[in-house]
Amino acid sequence: MINMKDIIAKALSEAIGISQGDVQALFTQPPQPTMGDIAFPCFQLAKTLRKAPVRIASDLKVKLDLRLDDASDPFSRTVERIEAVGAYLNFFLRRDTFAVEVLRASIAACDRPGASDEGAGKTVIVEYSSPNIAKPFHVGHGFSTFLGEAIANLFEYSGFDVQRFNHLGDYGTQFGKLIVAWKRWGDMEALKKAPIQELTRIYIKFHDEAEIEPELEDEARHAFTRLEQGSEEEMKLWHTFREVSLEEFNDTYERVNIHFDNMNGESFYAKMTPEVVRLLSEKGLLVESEGAKIVDLEDQGLNPCLILKNDGSTIYATRDIAAVLYRDRMWNFYRNIYVVGIPQINHFNQIFAVMEKLGMPDPERNVHVAFGTVRFADGVFSTRKGNIVLLDELLDAGVAHARAIVEESHPGLDEAEIDEIAEKIGVGAVRYTYLASGRERDILFSWEDVLDYEGDTAPYLLYTVTRCVSLLRKADPVVLKRLVEYRDEDAALLVGDDEQRVLKEIVRFPESLDAARTHYEPSMMIRRLMQLARAFNTFYHSTPILRADDTALAAARLALAQAVERTLKAGLRIAGIEPVDRM
Ligand code: ARG
What band does 578 get if pLDDT is binned at 50, 70 and 90? Predict the structure, then answer.
């Protein structure tokens, strides 16, 4: 496609006398495929050529049509025919040449279609997941986790040096409360068995008891101060809470195959807050307000950013400012991306505005990638109405539903294999759902939708992959041999409507990767995968593949299936969804 575009641009550039690049910049896509593959609007040429655009289009057609008669001209091997419609020149590509070009590119890219080294030498920090110590890892953190991983993968695929960060919530006055609560009501056995459950229990108990006994709040404040000062007893408890929570989080990360390069939590940056205070006051940005210290952001249309509370302690925002400074110093990042929910838009706007005031070079390198909330259709988690739903519960439920489907469709399969397939399908289906719609939209989970094998779902994509795999598995050795040899003349046979539609979707996959990456919107890639899978299945149902008329045609169609398989697998992997070979 790229090549074919160049050849057309060259012909136009020769005919008009403007540069090839200027021609390329004007190219558009006709609104309908029946109107051609590439459109060239002539409006802008009217001035230079002193002719009406419609006239330019028709003159160019006459000129270029002559070249189509010359069989040795690369232009005639690229273009089937040209139509002048109003001020537009519409080009219809030669289907055989197009098929050859797409298959060649697919073979060259192998299992990394659309990969590039565009980002070489640039470091991108993607901060995601970031659950809070001693608190449930809930479905909202799941959103950040899966979206963040997909964004990290997108950047990595384009050659960026990606640093996966997890900004653990491991600091703050709530740890004073936990320490007090633990000393009174903590149960070591329970902590070992289900750490976060036990820590949540005592935390809730603290709040209940503090209603009756308000002195507890003071005690907690003191405990936190001692923790800040590094007192041994408090530090030891805090370490334990952190360790046991992390162990639980790590089980989940292991399950979904996500690994971080950097797990520095808020406590790590808390140590650097004195520098934040110093820098801000040196720049005269720190203002006194009711005993507290703030940065005024009125000129940016934002409310003031609190830096120090009136007792001199730092807050969440102070630690985030410290983190940006530290990350820039250590990684000199090209992008510092925060995958955090919509409710924190104001928080990040404040942080970024403070960075700008501090004189950070290119502050727009900091990006907040916001996302919506997760809701459940009636009955999905009805027994726990009003409660927090844990990510693991959601994954378990997805796997259980997937298991029922797998069991039904493969009665003979052994347990271990059912487990493995169900885990992949169930987890994949949940991840897909997090990524498939625009990220700022809320998600409504219902198992019928999420696991619909015909719907816009992971199972549909996964099923399409297995279809490609099984075609290749069942192919006649003679056909396979010819497929491996690859010949342009075979690829040139893929001129049918349905084959061409599949080829066009394959071509658009790399574009979708760029769009998804630059908009931090994996759904743009997912949508493309879905359209590719739909096009392939239409082709699969309409066209004999293994039973094609002759070996050459069978090999060509199989090569198409292989290209689809590679594209779908690459996209699924970027989405963090593991393909299965059968289901
Ligand atoms: N721990 C926070 C939460 O659960 C998210 C942290 C987001 N990242 C940050 N750098 N502030 O809401």
Answer: very high
Lowest mean pLDDT among 77-81, 112-116, 225-229, 273-277: 225-229
What is the structure's pLDDT at 1?
53
Pocket flag, ligand 1, residue 169 (CB < 6 Å): yes
Alpha carbon dihedral 78, 83, 89, 91, in 10-degree steps, equals: -20
For domain 4-93, the CATH architecture is 2-Layer Sandwich (3.30)
The DSSP output letter for 362 is S
Atom of ligand 1 nearest to the CA of 348: 11
**233 phi and psi angles, rounded to 5 deg:** -60, -50
In the predicted model, what is the mean pLDDT of residues 182-208?
95
Alpha-carbon distances, residue 162 vs 152, 458, 568, 572 (angstroms): 6, 26, 23, 19
Can you tell me which atom of ligand 1 is nearest the CA of 341? Answer: 12
Report the pLDDT value the prediction gives residue 5, as an integer from 0 to 100: 92
What is the per-residue DSSP string for 520-534? T-THHHHHHHHHHHH
Round the CA-based radius of gyration of the chain to a whole number and report it.
Answer: 29
| Pairwise CA distance, residues 68 & 579, whole Å | 45
* pLDDT at residue number 386: 56
In the sheet where 366-369 sits, what is the strand order? 161-165, 123-127, 335-339, 366-369
| Burial category of 378 from C-beta neighbours within 10 Å (exposed 0-12, middle 13-18, buried 19 and up) | exposed
What's the CATH code, domain 392-574? 1.10.730.10
For ligand 1, atom 11, the nearest C-alpha belongs to: 320
Q: Which pLDDT value is given to residue 178?
A: 96
What local confidence, expressed as pLDDT, does residue 30 receive? 94
Using a 6 Å cutoff on CB, does residue 40 contact ligand 1? no
Average pLDDT, the chain: 95
Distance CA 349, CA 224 (A): 29
For ligand 1, the distance from its centroid to the CA atom of residue 264, given in whole angstroms, is 12
3-state SS, residue 111: coil
Of 344, 346, 374, the one to substitute when testing ligand 1's pocket (max ligand atoms within 8 A of C-beta) is 344
Write a three-state SS string for 264-327: CCHHHHHCCHHHHHHHHHHCCCEEEECCEEEECCHHHCCCCEEEECCCCCECHHHHHHHHHHHH
Q: Where in the chain is the domain with CATH 3.30.1360.70?
A: 4-93
Task: Please give the number of the atom of ligand 1 that sits closest to the Cα of 323.
Answer: 10
Q: pLDDT for 515-531, tens place per residue? A: 999 999 999 999 999 99
**What digits encode the pLDDT tens for the residues 444-465?**
999 999 999 999 999 999 999 9
pLDDT of residue 143: 98
Given the DSSP bridges, would you call strands 443-445 and 123-127 parallel, antiparallel or unpaired?
A: unpaired
Domain with CATH 1.10.730.10 in the chain: 392-574
Question: What tokens appear for 354 in the block?
Answer: 């403070």
Q: Which atom of ligand 1 is nearest to the CA of 347?
A: 11
User: How many Å apart are CA 323 and CA 271, to the nearest integer?
Assistant: 10
Distance CA 291, CA 555 (A): 77
Per-residue pLDDT band at 412 (split at 50, 70, 90): confident
